[in-house]
Fold these 2 entries.
Entry 1:
Amino acid sequence: MTNKDVRVRLAPSPTGEPHIGTAYTALYNYLFAKKMGGELILRIEDTDATRSKPEFEQTVYDSLRWMGLDWSEGPDVGGDYGPYRQSERKHIYGQYVDQLLEAGHAFKCFTTQEELEEMRAFQISQGKTPRYNGAGLRLTPEEIAEREARGEVPVIRMKIPTEGSCKYVDGGYGEVEIPWDAVDMQVIQKSDGMPTYHMANVVDDHLMKITHVARGEEWISSTPKHILLYQYLGWEAPEFTHLPLMRGADKSKLSKRKNPTSMSYYAGLGHLPEALTNFLGLFFIQISEGDELMDLDELVERFDPDKLSKAGAVFDVQKLDWLNARWLREKLTPEEFLARVLEWASENDKLKEGLLLAQTRIQTFSELPDLAGFLLKGDVGVTAESFANIKKNPPEKCLEVIDAVRPALDDMDDWNRESIEETLRVVAEGLETKLGKLTPPLFVAVSGSPRSLPLFDAMVLLGRAMVRQRLKVASDALHASLDTSDQSQDA
Ligand code: GLU
């Protein structure tokens, strides 16, 4: 293979705001493609129709481009191996599932969700790892025909060898061996005829001539299934590299409930994309101290897939901030600095729209920083005391409201004034209260002050990731203070 034939891909599922982990995997693939002189392909994996949203797809493009990445094929740029959105490739997968069925590598399974749950509960009660029990494998052709004639629609599962293990050499982990008895008979086609991730991913990687798959460590346990599917279909498997999971400073898995993880949050705080890219790139490169500052081209130059850093990937926000400060001081000219600040403040039109919202609420311009400054801040300094004087809303009520709103905002499809209002109205109903009672604590949590700009508009301008973080800070502060006051009462 010449380097020119190297084809790598990013395969995000547009089911949420792009995560720091998406950026991390994307950067690795980008550096790999550039270093090898190959191509980077962007494929949108939206087989989960209920969770995939066009809005999130757009944020994938925006966030990756914001980082300075680009790709030579994808839904938005076209290419010879399209369509690049799995929902537009539905007609492609069925023939390969049929091929697997005909060759006896896959089978029909009629086990219902309820039966699966019972199976699971029983196996757990026996101290066993829950897994599918292979019932479909034991059905005779007559039984299958009969059930189908009755209108039962099966899922299709792949067969897994009963003994031995899957061995392969991973670009990140070296020799990997996973016993087949640790691998479940994966569903490859759902009862609605749609392929699962595993099937679509393998078929598309093959048809798109992907030579190297680099993705997060969480997929390593799926790799035996994928390797087996390649074998069953008579295709050459790509090389696999699993990247160490990015962890929080406490070494736990990054989770948006604990810490902000979406790229838009860090963009909103005013991190330069160059600094974020630099920060993530250092996970892949062995460097000596003092040698940290690198732009994308330098990262490409220094990147060597055979010499990946062994340090693991810790999302250390202090280090990111430190790198950002160095970028501001050492890399930007004064003109660039000014331009970048203005660009940041204009993102999402937040400065302009914020000022317009303030127009009818001030007497003089000098009130603007107090009234609208929260739109540009990272932390608005909310403490439990900030909620002390909210009429008819004691702290425990404020906390109840905030904690009810947090998951509801996460579940929203669109982020606009109407959808926010509607969602909050539903939450208010659930709490058997009025929308008007919900807004004061949210006002304080989001803006840090009881006097500020209209709540829903402000939330739109701040963006979901920033609002999520402010509600979390408020909730943590209230929880902590209520626990303390409980203890003091006990004492
Ligand atoms: N759609 C999967 C994801 O969002 C892709 C995993 C892979 O790269 O195979 O992580």
Note: The first strand starts at residue 7 and ends at 10.
Entry 2:
Amino acid sequence: MTPASRPPTRILDTPITFLKGVGERRAEAFRRLGVLNARDLLLHIPHRYEDASTVRAINALRIGEDATVIGTVISKGVLPTRKGLRIFQAVVQDTSGFIEVSWPGQPFLDRSINKGDVLLLSGTVRFYHGRQLMPREWVNLGADDSGTAEGRVLAVYPATEGLSFKMIRSIIDKHLDALVPAVDEYLPADLLHATGLPGIQDALRRVHRPASVAEAISGRNRLAYDELLCVHLLQRRANAIARQARRGIAFTNRRELTSKLKSSLPWELTGAQVRATREIVADMTSPQRMHRLLQGDVGSGKTIVALFACCLALENGYQAAVMAPTELLAEQHFRTFSRLLAPLGVEPVLVTGSMTAKARRAAAARLAEAGPVLAVGTHALVQEGTMFANLGLAVIDEQHRFGVEQRATLGEKGGAPDVLLMSATPIPRSLALTLYGDLDVSVLDERPPGRQPITTALRGESARDKVFEFVEGQLAAGRQAYLVYPIIEESDKIALKAATTAYEALASGPFAHRRVALLHGRLSGDEKDAIMRSFRDGELDLLVSTTVIEVGIDVPNATVMVIEHPERFGLSQLHQLRGRVGRGAEESFCILLGDQGAESRERLRHVVDTEDGFEIARADLRLRGMGDLFGKQQSGLPTFRIADPVRDEELSEMARAAAERLLAGDSTLSSAANRGLQKTLTGRYGRALELFRVG
Ligand code: ADP
Ligand code: MG
């Protein structure tokens, strides 16, 4: 059977190799792009568009303006400069005239741009022995494309070796008219209508053959919406099924310990804390297991919310456990809890690896007896030897610092405890719902009142001495300071050497009379804790550190942080680091030190200008994508081909609401109106098959 004579939907299953104009070699390249069949080909959409409909005549260009032109290369070559920089230059011509185009530092272009090639170029016109164009963006349309791009929008596809975007474009163009009619609309009519987005066939034509950029965008948005809708449907359905399977403890809101805690707090809870606490209480009093993520900026007061949850478990006669990623943080929580719970007559138990065997045994003995006990500790809580008689609640602080297995293990201790995860990488709620749809999410988006703002400044090398004088001033006033070096990889020997050298220079130079220590990831856990402890106890003035300074550690007397090479950090990371100061009543400062290029200065502005972690995370996501913000733990998060859950926040929110409505009325999507959607979902996502299986 030839593709054309297959039944319509089968056409879409045609392996890419069998499409006319593809062949085995190109099919291989297509597979690398994730395109296996005709359906994938339709969904291989352009990643950008060159708007050739706004092309200008070359002879009309003026110095200083920004313009797009199309011209044929009439001469080219590589010029050396006196500074050793090699410049590729070409002269391009259209019917009106010609202009010189210059690519400094890109001599290799000489191999890919040939005389006779037609180029589409956008950039600024400058004066350099005459008019010269510096292309910001450009596309080689090839030798035979003369004129065809004029007056329309040019689609540029993600390409790969052995398969140029031009080839992809021509293959898609060849098959578009035959393939598109085979795609049935799968969104229910009323839903589609409510979105205001184009129908599926229309959308596919618009993305591949747009008459204007606006048209291309609307088509792309429809496809992105579909993808987001599918992910939300999957997540919600998985969540609902998991809930049914997760019979848990139905705690009773006795308002004994929780009310006492509330009335003994030295301050009022913020509105956000009240809201989050209510959400958690609702989860814990329901018969299903809680599986909730509490996220909030550094200093937003997550700990106290967790403590309310613990009290609810305790007043029901259950045990609660709070796990922190480091000994120091565990100790800190232990102190805080001991202090806040003293008026209630509750004494928590500390469980860490460095405790004496005797202390460890005593703690284990208390946990082995059924009864209300609050355990605070490190991953020692989930190691052998720690048994919980009746764990009712597991809280995991700074959850991203733990491996997936460690998190899971605490949740499996005892019967079926409720689980509360806490994270200080705040991301917009809608994004959290897209990424962690199988968790419920509470957000602390409000700061406790009376917090001193942190003044953040960006200073160049010329100000280095002044910056250190300023730090000295703070130390002289009895405060403490951090100096942070960017070692992200602990194996980075060169960076470690730089930090060590800098430490030695400071400790023997400007801060020779101060108590200075160096903290880095290569030290043993004990050594690290010992240094942090002496810093906390005021036995050190200046802590030179890599990024290991513990998340969540509270040293209120530290009022200034200097960060070297801030350009090497992500914005959210800088914000987290900065959160180590500004924890006391004194005014605090964060100084980003080092000379910066314009681009990096622009990026760092986000940290200088705002203290809102959500806003910063958003900027970080926009600039660097999700991978950097979530690092290795990204595995397990959904992946997207077309949609970008950050940039498409609004679409995602629309899709989330739609998924909720659809599933509320028809949880397996098996009604006549939803069938098409169910089929598309199960066809595209393997996981969907089991989630939406009917009957
Ligand atoms: P994080 O969310 O970073 O874990 P913490 O729970 O450590 O923040 O809280 C930061 C500080 O704010 C703590 O010193 C805590 O006692 C204080 N705090 C928490 N909630 C409030 C509140 N409602 N009013 C005033 N201070 C608060
Ligand atoms: Mg915390």
Note: Residues 213-245 form the longest helix (33 residues).
